[in-house]
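Renewal narrative, Specific Aim 1. Our central claim is that a sequence can be written position by position from structural information alone. The example that follows is taken directly from our test logs and has not been curated for this report. It begins with the structure tokens describing the chain, in the order in which they were read.
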């Protein structure tokens, strides 16, 4: 596959068009539905919140509607994709996206449900080892899940939860501070739980270093990859993470409330004695329909399943996953670095002309995905509403941050250039 040129950026339409013309992934843009604004495609920079609908989604769902209409209950065992095995049709693509073996991943439930289920297995506090270390300002759902798990075990969140915050005057975390905190709490640490990409700042944490530090002190290490899966290159198996979970409705474009993916390292997935909450869809599939007592888990991550798959949601997810395999994560990441770099260049050009768009996302491309979080001034909300009125869909976070995510699967360099023109016009 050819690669995009790395020549110096230019804030011109000709440059943007030239970059798009040589983009090996340009064909994927037409495979997504864009919301319309005054008869044209919106400038959609909100894939970090809800990804666009693939054109193929309707076909994939209609196939399962036909399966249901034609076979009724026998659809579990007949047709091209028998429902009883449907989770298998999502494993190869999911493994590609997160850097895992196929047996280490499964799609099931939704994100926070899976986070709780995984903490059942991997947060098992003792009087000596009971602390959870996480980033300060984690997504609220993670905060609530961790707090409730701690309370469930009869512990005090004030003493059991350790949050790592940026240094005074800084917006993002330093890896050395995360590692130092893990080492400081050492033998009291039961679990290290971080996001992959921080939802507010867009920082991509050094997951390999965090995993190694957690394991050195004897803790389990897991990740919420809601903003990382489909966004950055992940190597969960090689990094030796114990577990991870992610949603599918952001970069993975599976639709609102789409199903969640789970990673469980093979050393745990093949340990049937590891405590877990059980359900019949995680039971040994060769004997599942004998309906006997005594839970025997399937090997790998599939042994954490509870209920049979919500087929229509899984079909929508499969439609999107197949596009990721066709595009490949390395190619998407390569375009992402250049596309996000172009947005950064455009914002810095505006700053040189007197505007003040402070990017709080790390400058180093290795430490971020495609999202740039822009700290605005007192007119930030006015700017956000102006962009919306002009067909830009992005994301506002209180008190004054606009999140912009040029997504490589369907955004273009011309999209970024047009956004820059609107920002310049707002500035007058």
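The sequence written for that structure reads:
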């Amino acid at each position: 596959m050819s690669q995009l040129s790395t020549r110096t950026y230019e804030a011109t339409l000709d440059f943007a068009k030239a970059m798009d013309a040589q983009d090996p992934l340009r064909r994927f843009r037409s495979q997504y539905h864009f919301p319309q604004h005054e008869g044209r495609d919106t400038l959609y920079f909100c894939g970090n919140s809800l990804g666009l609908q693939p054109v193929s989604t309707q076909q994939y769902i209609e196939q399962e509607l036909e399966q249901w209409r034609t076979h009724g209950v026998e659809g579990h065992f007949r047709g091209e994709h028998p429902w009883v095995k449907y989770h298998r049709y999502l494993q190869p693509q999911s493994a590609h996206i997160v850097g895992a073996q196929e047996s280490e991943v499964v799609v099931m439930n939704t994100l926070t449900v899976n986070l709780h289920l995984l903490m059942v297995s991997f947060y098992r506090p003792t009087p000596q080892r009971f602390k959870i270390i996480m980033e300060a300002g984690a997504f609220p759902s993670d905060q609530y899940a961790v707090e409730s798990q701690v309370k469930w075990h009869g512990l005090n969140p004030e003493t059991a939860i350790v949050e790592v915050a940026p240094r005074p005057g800084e917006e993002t975390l330093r890896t050395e501070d995360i590692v130092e905190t893990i080492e400081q709490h050492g033998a009291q640490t039961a679990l290290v739980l971080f996001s992959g990409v921080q939802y507010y700042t867009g920082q991509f944490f050094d997951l390999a270093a965090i995993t190694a530090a957690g394991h050195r002190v004897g803790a389990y290490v897991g990740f919420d990859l809601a903003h990382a899966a489909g966004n950055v290159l992940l190597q969960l198996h090689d990094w030796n993470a114990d577990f991870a979970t992610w949603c599918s409705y952001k970069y993975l474009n599976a639709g609102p409330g789409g199903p969640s993916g789970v990673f469980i390292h093979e050393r745990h997935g093949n340990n049937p004695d590891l405590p877990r909450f059980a359900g019949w869809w995680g039971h040994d599939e060769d004997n599942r329909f004998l309906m006997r007592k005594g839970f025997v888990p399937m090997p790998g991550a599939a042994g954490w399943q509870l209920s049979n798959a919500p087929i229509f949601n899984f079909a929508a997810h499969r439609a999107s996953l197949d596009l990721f395999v066709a595009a490949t994560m390395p190619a998407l990441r390569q375009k992402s670095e250049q596309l996000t770099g172009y947005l950064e260049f455009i914002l810095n050009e505006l700053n040189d002309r007197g505007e003040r768009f402070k990017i709080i996302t790390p400058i180093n491309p290795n430490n971020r995905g495609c999202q740039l979080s822009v700290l605005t001034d007192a007119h930030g909300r006015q700017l956000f509403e102006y962009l919306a009125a002009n067909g830009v869909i992005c994301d506002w976070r209180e008190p004054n941050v606009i999140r912009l995510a040029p997504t490589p699967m369907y955004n273009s360099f011309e999209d970024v250039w047009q956004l820059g023109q609107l920002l310049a016009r707002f500035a007058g």
